[in-house]
Amino acid sequence: MGHPHLPGAPITEAMVDLRVDLPAGTTVEHLSSLQELLGPIYPEKKSIVEWRGQINPTAQQAVSSETKAIKGYQFWSADKLHVVQARLGGFACSRLRPYQDWANLRDEATARWLQYVQVANPTRISRISIRTINRIELPAPVTNFEDYFKTFVKIADGLPQFLAGMFVRMVVPSGDMSGVITIVLEEESITEAVVPVILDIDVVKPVDMPARGEQHWATIEELRAFKNDIFFNSLTTKALEMFK
Fold first, then answer.
1. Does pTM top 0.85 for this prediction?
2. Whole-angstrom Cα distance, residue 180 to residue 47?
3. For the chain, N or C: smaller number of CB within 10 Å?
């Protein structure tokens, strides 16, 4: 089913993510060289650090040992609208707010993926996901969230029918794909004018396909269609009108 383009889409970040297997001996130094290919378009590099600690509740210090390791890098575009992640476990390309359209993200991800393949030489793709984080600013006061959301929580009758905060996570399967839907009511950001709700949609498919070639882009388009189904079917017509 096709869905209309929303010029004012509430997306704060849209991401294409591919998890991969890399040849033995690949190091973060190989990934660091991606910046040479990105050039001045992506001038800023930040380390992706993984922290690990061992907890010992009987010791004087709960965390008895702690290590950190660089697992990859983030490369930020000069205009701060795109972020490329080059990790030992995979690749991601994000478009930040203001979101333009799918074609812009797809073309950018395609170009940066080919550069990642050039420096990392992945052997296979094991998982593909499309994720969009939407910040939906509802006009306050909100007397009934069901005016805007078809998917939301239900407060039991007999309790005060008011929400000051909320976190809900749901996993919706569709064949060999899964849609992870997270809805958060941002308690600390509620004002007299706005009630912000985060609608985070992450659609995932495990795969086993070669890293080189075009096969994975058909899967990406399949995931995007599922993501759109979740988004448009989670909101009411009244909510969608806010983004046209």
1. yes
2. 27
3. N
